[in-house]
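FIELD: query
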Amino acid sequence: MDYSSLKTYSVEVLRLILSGIRRSNNFVDISSLNGNSMPDGIDILTYSFPCQDLSNVGAFHGYNKGIDKGSNSRSSLLWQVGSILQEMKDADKQLPRFLLMENVPALLSKRHRPNFEIWISDLEKLGYEKCIL
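FIELD: result
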């Protein structure tokens, strides 16, 4: 969210947003994190990433890079989560016990499924078991 979006909100709404971010330990910008900055004792790590490069609506607007590694699409921020987890492991930090990812159903489409399977494989190599709901 950029400044032009933020300035449309009242001060009270901005205070509520900030309070929610602090209460939920939300790091807001995954691209600014690394494994060493992650706290110890994480039970559950919830994450998502922009879906414009996956969704049908995004494709209509020309966003079609998907989650391809190295595509520099917004949706490729998924791989940053993997980097953070690997950095945590390399630093002998305890990995989060559970991971919960949310995104659009198109992530499991024929176009994006191979990348998603690589993602699942990467998580399994870190010791996670898959459970897709």
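FIELD: remark
The two ends are 29 Å apart (CA to CA).
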